[in-house]
């Protein structure tokens, strides 16, 4: 992985530290809350969750731009 300072190209804040039980409990709580929000909009999916994926990706930002 490239080394550098925060904000420089190639710099990553990702960690290679192992996940502990506390991390998984926190991720479980986040997944539960996310599913509750989704199921509030789509109640037919309330009992249809099959799996939750642990993934790391780019942080989303809110944009006020109108797609054109």
TrEMBL record:
It comes from the Bacteria. This is Uncharacterized protein. The lineage of its organism: Bacteria, Bacillati, Actinomycetota, Actinomycetes, Pseudonocardiales.
């Amino acid at each position: 992985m490239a080394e550098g300072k925060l904000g420089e190209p190639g710099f990553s804040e990702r960690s290679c530290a192992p996940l502990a039980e506390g991390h998984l409990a926190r991720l479980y709580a986040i997944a539960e809350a996310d599913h509750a929000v989704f199921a509030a909009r789509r109640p037919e999916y309330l009992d249809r969750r099959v799996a939750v994926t642990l993934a790391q990706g780019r942080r989303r930002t809110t944009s006020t731009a109108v797609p054109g």
